Amino acid sequence: MKVEFWYIGKTNEKYLMQGMAIFEKRLGHYCKFATVCLKDVKPGQTSNETKLREYELINSKLSASDYLVLLDEVGEMYSSENFSKVIEKLQLNASKRVVFLVAGAFGAHEKLQERADKMLSLSKMTFSHQMIRLFFLEQLYRAFTIIRNEKYHNA
What we know:
Layout: E1 2-8, H1 14-27, E2 32-38, H2 47-61, E3 67-76, H3 80-93, E4 97-102, H4 110-115, E5 118-120, H5 129-147
Parallel strand pairs: 1-2, 1-4, 3-4, 3-5
Helix pairs in contact: 1-5, 3-5
């Protein structure tokens, strides 16, 4: 299974970039993994117009066979153990590429929500779009360690 983690806009904080790099490297031991930073789109006159532009950019890079998991506040929440079961199921049943996506600062356009095969929320709390990147990568890594019954999860 090829796994890609997409997000819009650069990560500015050095400590977040360092943390992300640690988990990106670790994830390479479990799957073909890549992180994709999409360029910010030109802001629209309204937040909905900006979200539409982001959708168009994202959609242009997705293929029909991609399995898209949208990280969104209205998505389904899982415990780490249950999230590992989702990952395990994707390993068995997924298409060639699974894309986890954090939309832009205004959230995801309704067209993007409709395109998503699954929507995932990490918390009822609100985190910055840059911080959630690190949190998600850690949870993805944790899911793989749970699947393989490795000590990280309980450490």
